[in-house]
Amino acid sequence: xxxxxxxxxxxxxxxxxxxxDPSFTRSISEDQPVGPGDGLSATRVVIGVVGVVIGLAIxxxxxxxxxxxxxxLGFAVMVGGGFWALSSGRAPKTDAPSSRPTGxxxxxxxxxxxxxxxxxxxxxxxxxxxxxx
Length: 133
What we know:
The protein is mostly helical. Helix content is 66%, strand content 0%. It has six helices and no strands. The radius of gyration is 24 Å and the shape is elongated. Residues 21-40, 88-133 are annotated as: Disordered. This is DUF3040 domain-containing protein.
């Protein structure tokens, strides 16, 4: 399906804006997994699914036997297995460089905190635009 002239013009404008802001492009590419082992691990997913199945079996056994504390334990095992399956197993990066130069002006709260994620950077950019900086 071909783009209309207006849609093609908007796409060209977006591409031009992205080329003019290399720091934005760099910051987005830093947040994405880049190689094998950076995303979900098959081993962790399998172990997590096994944990969820075992937890479900414990919950069903608790229902069958009428021992409710055992059901709570089974639920905890299920949640733990799901968390294990979906986590990457690595500590988050805390030494990422700030997207703002050290001498740039900005709100005092933004200078005191280090942007830690995509939404923080977007909020900082919004604050700069709204403040006229």
